[in-house]
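Two proteins follow. First one:
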Amino acid sequence: MAAKPTKNTLMFYPWHHFVLLPAALILAIYGVRRYLTVAGDDSEISRLWFTVAALAVVGLGVLLMLRQHYALTLQDRLLRLEVRQRYFEVTGQSLRPLESQLKLGQILALRFAGDAELAELTQAAIRENLSSKDIQARIKDFHFDDMRV
């Protein structure tokens, strides 16, 4: 098993981290505070501040979830390409004809396999319909991936 690197790198996207998220957070806090000052009133201003606060909190949540979703989707695409490239380097054949028989989870699990066992595990995953956990359990030369967000 390969040693786990200890380097931890933080990446920031300025518009997201320093403009949109703080603005959404400030709007959510301000909206909730303003609503709490008029809460209990059955007035139009009370309903307005409740709506502003609710939309701001939901918007903040969506911003946080979308950022993570986009990062993971992109990483899945990159990992699929990495497995394709490694499979080609090891076997001299394209993985594309076999990909339709593999689920994304299986392909992502195959990335942990060493070069010597990648082709054999790929065939076993197709033949035996192995789950990603089963694939990982069969890996003898495990290459840990700690660069996933």
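Second one, unrelated to the first:
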Amino acid sequence: MTKTKIYIVLLFLVMGLQHSFGQNYKFKTSGFSVLEKTEKGKWGKWSDLDLVNILVTLDTDKNRIVVYSQIIQLFEIIDYQPIEENETDIVYSFTCKDNEGLDCTVSIITRKKQDNRKQLYINYEDRIIVYNIFNM
């Protein structure tokens, strides 16, 4: 077997084990920013970074992500997307429905060239919310 085939097989084994042995991950936020589309459908500018210290959980047993902000944001995980990795990032993405029934994609991104800094992106059709996070 070539090295590529071995890596692919190992990746599927790891992903399969992760789903069969659910995990609960906890993060704390240090700040957040929002990007919204304008009335013309173009992306505007990121808001200033607001400092926040809130809890975020990823619970693969219950298939949900919870952001414990003033108004609790609950995301039901509909699908676990394949892990994406390149020279600069590792991206774990989830197709979700929020507590209002809206579709969104939630991604946890590790910035490899920035001391493995982590960010949580919540992508809607008309806005993106980003939280700077760290493991608890």
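SUMMARY FIELD: The longest helix spans residues 3-20. Residues 5-13 have pLDDT under 50 and may be disordered.
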